[in-house]
Amino acid sequence: MKQARATDLDPFRERIASALPQVGACDIQIDDDGDFVFRHGDLHLMLILDKRDPGYLRVILPNFAEADSPERRARLLSACAQTCGMVKLAKLFFNGDDLCATAETYVPQAEVIDSRFLDRLVSSTIAAAAYVVHGAPVEENAASSASTQRMIH
Predict the structure, then answer these.
(1) Angle between helices 115-134 and 70-86 (to 10 degrees)
(2) Which stretches of the chain are assigned E, i.e. beta strand?
(3) In the chain, N or C terminus with fewer CB closer than 10 Å?
(4) For the chain (length 153 residues), average pLDDT per consecutive 10?
């Protein structure tokens, strides 16, 4: 029987696995790349670790809006520009015609990761998508998770 080899990512994965359920994540799975895939409300998100840089974390809400025409793309780009000025940590990017939201950060050691830390990343990601889709006002740093759970993507 082949034993899994310990990696630099293991302490990060352990902390994330412990904290994710506390921030409202459910149906948590680890994909073939070792990334976390989970539901938050009716949204499907991913938490990605970088094998080359163990302290680098990204929470991604993929494909929450589609630019199905040049006019729609222009409106989404305008909304993205406004959102990036409002929601701390958030980045928005297109994957083809699909718009994705992400919050990225670097932590020097796994012990920094707890539920409060992950909630900030998850809620900032969701808040950015909510702001783009709904033009929703956001709190100073990010909307609460509860206020953005009902988005349709």
Answers:
(1) 140
(2) 25-30, 36-40, 43-50, 53-66, 90-95, 98-106
(3) N
(4) 60 95 96 94 94 91 94 91 85 95 94 94 94 66 40 36
C-beta separation of 134 from 79 below 8 A = no
Ramachandran bin of 111, using left for φ above 0, alpha for ψ from -120 to 50, beta for the remaining angles: alpha
Q: Letter for the amino acid at 68?
A: D
pLDDT at 138: 43
45 vs 32: CA distance, rounded Å: 16
State the SS3 of 108-135: CCHHHCCHHHHHHHHHHHHHHHHHHHHC
Tell the residue number behind the tokens 């302290």, with chain if given. Answer: 55
CA angle 94, 100, 104 (to 5 degrees): 110
